[in-house]
Amino acid sequence: MNIDKHVKVCLLMTTLAFSACLSSCGVNSGPVVVTAAPDLEPQDAAENPDIAPMSPDGPLFPDLTDVEEEDPIPDYLRVGTEHPIVAALQERLMELGFMDNDEPTEYYGEVTANAVKHFQRQNGLAEDGVIGQDTLMAILSPDAKYYAVSKGVKGDDIQQIQGRLYELGYLASADQVTGYFGDSTEQAVLKLQQMNGLKEDGKVGRQTMNLLYSDEIKPNMLEYGEKSEVVLACQERLRDLGYMTSEPDGTYGNDTTIAVRRFQSRNDLVVDGYLGPSTRVALDSPSAVPNGLSLGDEDATVKRVQELLNKYGYLVAGNVTGYYGEITENAVKSFQRQNGLTADGMVGVQTMSKLTGDNVRRAPANSGGSSSGGSSGSSSSGRGSSGGSSSGGGSSSSSGGSSGGGGAVISDSSGVSRLISVARSKIGSPYVWGAKGPNSFDCSGFVYWCLNQSGVKQSYLTSSGWRSVGRYQKITSFGDLRAGDIVVVSGHVGICSGSGSVIDASSSHGRVVERSLSSWWRSNFICGWRIFG
C-alpha cells in the first residue's frame, strides 16, 4: 500500500466516523461525502490550475481520483452496486487474502460478496455479504487481520482448501472434502505444515495458504524412489493406457514420473509427477484418457519414445530431441508397418505397448533410420532442427521481440487470431475459483482452456506456474507484449488481445472480460510468453 492510499483510507475512516458521531447526536448530516486528500507539498493555486483555492463553498480537496468528489458512499454496498469505493475495498480484500489478486473494479459482484462473507465470518460480523458501516470500518482498519481458518469453520472456501489437501495426499479420501473444517482437516493441515517446515498450528493462514499452490510444496503421496505393490499396480494401469515407456517393476523411477506427468496433463490434473489421491482416482476411472503422441507434441515422453525408436534402428541418435516432428512421425510409421500395426504415425496404446514390449521387430538393416531434414523435422508448428530439452523446445523461426528468450514460438499465421477468437467467445462466462471450463473459469483455467481449444497442447498450470513455464518465448518487457501473448502478473494471468487490451477471467468483475492493460498490469508485471510467431 503506498502513502497516497493510506491517506485516502484514513480520510474515508475519518469521514465515516464523523458521520457516525453526527448521527448519534441527532444531526441529520445527509449522505456521507468523501472528499479528496490534500497535496502533501503546498503549491500556489495560480501555478497549478488543477488545485482549486480553499473556500467555505468550494471543494477543499479536488485532486482525489480514486473516489470522485461529491459522490456519496451508499449506506450499504451489495451485489449490483457500482461506486469508486468498491475498487478500494476489493484491493484491501486482496491484500488481506480474501480475494484472488486482480485489477480492482468499481463493480460489487458475487465474487466480491463471497469474499466479504468470509471476512465477516472471520471478524464475528453478520455473514450477509453486504457492507454496512461496521463491515466497511473493519475492512479498512489498519488492524484488519489476514485471511485465516481453523477447526470449526465451514464454507465453500474450506471445501476448496480440502480439495487441494486431497490432491496433495494429506486427506485420505474424497468424502472428506465436506466444506467443514473438522478433526481430519486439522490433522491434514498439521501434517502438511510438519512436512513443509511451517509452524504447526493446524490453521490455514497466510503462509500455509500461499504454500498450498506454490511449486515448492511437498506432497504426502507416492513419489520418486518408493517401491511397493501400489506403485506396481499404478504402473500397470499406466502401461494399459499407453503411458509407461518401460516394464512395470514396482519402483517409482524416472519413467514412472514421466508417465504420471503425461497422464496428469492429458486428464486435466495439476501436473506435478506425484501419485496423489486425485491422480489415482483418475487413473482408475473408466473414463481415463489414454496416451496419444502425435505431430507437434513435445515432452519427456516423446524423448523416451525417440530413444526406443533409436534403439531399434528407426531413428538416428541426433533426432532424439523431445519434439515430435515429421522425422519422428515417419519413424513411427516405419515401426508400425514393420510390427503389423496401422501406420498412422501416432503413438497410441497399441504402438506404445509394442514399442515397450519384448517382441519388437527391428528396422531393416539397410534403412539407416529416419535422418533427413534435421533432428526433429519441419512441421506446422515450425520447430527448428536444433531440438532441445522437453521444456525449452527447439529453435524458433522468429525472435519474438528484443526482450524474448527461453523457448520457441509456434510459426502459425492464424494462431494469434484463433486464440483471441476463442478467448472472446467466452467473455461473460462466470469466474469460479479452480474452474477450467468450458462454462466457467478462474484465470489460469481460462488460459489453459483457450490454448487447448486453439490447438496448443498445454497442460494446466496455476498462475504461479506460468512464471517459469519455459516452453515458449519469454517476454521480459511489458512494452514488448503484443496480441496473442500470455501476460503473467502477480497472482494472475491473461491473454493479450491487441490494442493495449487483455482478456482474462477476472475475480473482481466476477466473469471473463476484455479490458485495458492498465497501469495495474504494468506495476504487477512479471513476464509474458509468446505462443505464436
CATH architecture of the largest domain: Orthogonal Bundle
CATH class group of the largest domain: Mainly Alpha
Regions with little confidence, pLDDT below 50 for 5+ residues: 1-7, 20-42, 59-65, 372-402
* Residue-averaged pLDDT: 82
Number of strands: 7
Stated plainly, the CATH topology of the largest domain is called Muramoyl-pentapeptide Carboxypeptidase, domain 1
Number of domains: 5
Q: Span from first to last CA?
A: 38 Å
Main β-sheet description: 7 strands, antiparallel
Oligomer state of the chains in this structure? single chain
What is the helix fraction of residues, given as a range? 25-40%
Please state how the strands of the largest beta sheet are arranged side by side. Answer: 1-2-7-3-4-5-6
Helical run tally? 16
Radius of gyration: 28 Å
Q: CATH homologous superfamily name of the largest domain? A: PGBD-like superfamily/PGBD
Task: Give the amount of beta strand, in percent.
Answer: 5-15%
How does the overall form come out from the CA principal axes? globular
N-to-C SSE string, H for helix and E for strand: HHHHHHHHHHHHHEHHEEEEEHE
Class from secondary-structure proportions: alpha+beta
